């Protein structure tokens, strides 16, 4: 098939590349000329394991191309994926301006039937707005051309995006006409060779499914964070509690890790957007409101512990910080807890030496001008002369550090571990003061 992907960010680039990988011809469009120039030059704008090679391979095979030319991109694909950003508006609702701009562009240039696929995470009712936007632009042109609008939310995880796209747990497709259903079935056939993974449903249910999934995962995290904070006060170990409840198949082990709060480009904004959708329709989303409040507090949990140890005034204190990305295997800094931690420490007068194996450049960009923050070249040099180490992202390389070297580099052997990386008895046995979450 010939496919156009509108928006060449995390989702668009992965979607386009994986669709090319199975033999389709894909054109990725973006409004950002620098991004397209970089892609055309063989670089990629994000860190995602395996993606660069796959992009290169498919470009070389002539199946993947990049453009900023809207007319060319609309003409190209019989299927047009919309994979642009849907950031939160001021009231928390999803800002649809980019999605609707993409829809109008399709309407402005299309010459024959298109299947338009909403892959961006969009509130229930957006497909209707996309349909309307295309109808209006076609009417302005005085032409009558057929098209279908489909909802196909994306469930990939940054850091494992290719694996998730190539071997999805499920593919949710909200489509209500036979032609679109047939196209979507053909499009996804290569990704479900061993069993049926497509769940066809009505468009509104598909749109809601995406928010329901992220809201449920965020709820599990906030629930565990609150329980962890209580466990600390009660003298219980949340890690043992986690195993105790995870063994119940109705609960399961996944997504039960307490920590320094959830971040990233999805959970915070999707929880906000679902609360806003509820509000708009007269439903108070009480659980999700609490999930969000608990997460906001949890992002500062490590700082609370630092303050409990050293007092509110941290001037003259220097801290090492391991991990800046919102989670391992990505350089995504959107809503990363590290941003709150750094800000809170330096606002109390401390200085911070941070290390992240891939997100340092992106962190330097988003935290530009943060006085008191410097970046270390490697994990051990970040520790030099620090009063304590704070761990904010659970990169694999932090799992088994040389504790002797760590103690020698730090001014005092103190660790604030926001990701429960170590066995408390073991590190305390090595002479460290070890603060974890719920242990
Ligand atoms: N990042 C994730 O892990 C993830 C996972 C699932 C779903 N989603 C959803 O997918 C959507 C995209 O997320 P992302 O992380 O890929 O965003 P992103 O910011 O990385 O990429 C969006 C891209 O769209 C481009 N763009 C904006 N308007 C455009 C237009 N009119 N025409 C062409 N390009 C345009 C931007 O320049 C940008 O490059 C969001 O709705 C998000 O919630 C993201």
Look at the helices and sheets and give the structural class. alpha/beta
Beta-strand residue percentage: 5-15%
Report the sheet with the most strands, covering strand number, pairing sense and barrel closure.
Answer: 6 strands, parallel
Query: Distance between the terminal alpha carbons, to the nearest Å?
Result: 53 Å
**Poorly predicted segments:** none
Helix content: 40-55%
> What strand order characterises the main sheet?
3-2-1-4-5-6
Report the top-level CATH class of the largest domain.
Alpha Beta
Radius of gyration: 24 Å
How many domain modules?
A: 3
Helix tally equals 17
The CATH superfamily label of the largest domain reads: NAD(P)-binding Rossmann-like Domain
What ligand molecules are bound, each kind once?
nicotinamide-adenine-dinucleotide
Instruction: Report the CATH topology name of the largest domain.
Output: Rossmann fold
* Average of the residue pLDDT scores: 97
Spatial shape: elongated
Number of strands: 14
Q: Which architecture of the largest domain does the CATH hierarchy give at level 2?
A: 3-Layer(aba) Sandwich
């Amino acid at each position: 098939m010939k496919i156009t992907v509108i928006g060449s960010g995390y989702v668009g680039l992965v979607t386009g590349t994986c669709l090319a990988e199975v033999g389709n011809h894909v054109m990725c469009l973006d409004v950002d000329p620098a991004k397209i120039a970089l892609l055309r030059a063989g670089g990629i704008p994000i860190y995602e394991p395996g993606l660069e090679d796959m992009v290169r391979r498919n470009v070389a095979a002539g199946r993947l191309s990049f453009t900023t030319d809207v007319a060319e991109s609309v003409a190209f694909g019989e299927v047009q994926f919309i994979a642009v950003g849907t950031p939160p508006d001021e009231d928390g609702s999803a800002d649809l301006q980019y999605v609707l701009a993409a829809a109008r562009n399709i309407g402005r240039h299309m010459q024959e039937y298109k299947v338009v696929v909403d892959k961006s995470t969009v509130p229930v009712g957006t497909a209707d707005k996309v349909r309307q936007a295309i109808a209006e632009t076609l009417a302005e042109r005085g032409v009558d051309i057929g098209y279908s609008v489909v909802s196909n939310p994306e469930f990939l995880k940054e850091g494992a995006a290719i694996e998730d796209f190539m071997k999805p747990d499920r593919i949710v497709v909200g489509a209500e006409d036979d032609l679109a259903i047939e196209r979507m079935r053909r499009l996804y056939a290569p990704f479900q060779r061993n069993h049926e993974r497509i769940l066809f449903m009505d468009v509104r249910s598909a749109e809601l499914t995406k928010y329901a999934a992220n809201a449920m995962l965020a709820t599990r995290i906030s629930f565990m964070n609150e329980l962890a904070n209580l466990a600390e006060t009660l003298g219980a170990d949340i890690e043992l509690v986690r195993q105790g409840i995870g063994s119940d198949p109705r609960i399961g082990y996944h997504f039960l890790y307490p920590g320094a709060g959830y971040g990233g480009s999805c959970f915070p904004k999707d929880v906000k957007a679902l609360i806003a959708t509820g509000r708009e329709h007269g439903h108070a989303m009480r659980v999700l409101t609490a999930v969000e409040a608990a997460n906001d507090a949890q992002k500062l949990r490590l700082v609370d512990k630092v303050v409990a140890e050293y007092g509110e005034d941290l001037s003259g204190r220097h801290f090492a910080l391991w991990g800046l990305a919102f989670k391992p295997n990505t350089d995504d800094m959107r809503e990363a807890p590290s941003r709150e931690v750094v800000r809170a420490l330096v606002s109390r007068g401390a200085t911070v030496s941070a290390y992240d194996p891939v997100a340092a450049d992106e962190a330097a960009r988003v935290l530009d001008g943060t006085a008191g923050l410097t970046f270390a070249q490697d994990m051990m040099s970040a520790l030099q002369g620090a009063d304590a180490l704070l761990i904010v992202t659970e990169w694999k390389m932090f799992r088994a550090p040389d504790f002797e070297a760590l103690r020698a580099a730090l001014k005092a052997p103190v660790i604030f571990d926001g990701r429960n990386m170590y066995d408390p008895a073991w590190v305390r046995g090595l002479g460290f003061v070890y603060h974890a979450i719920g242990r």
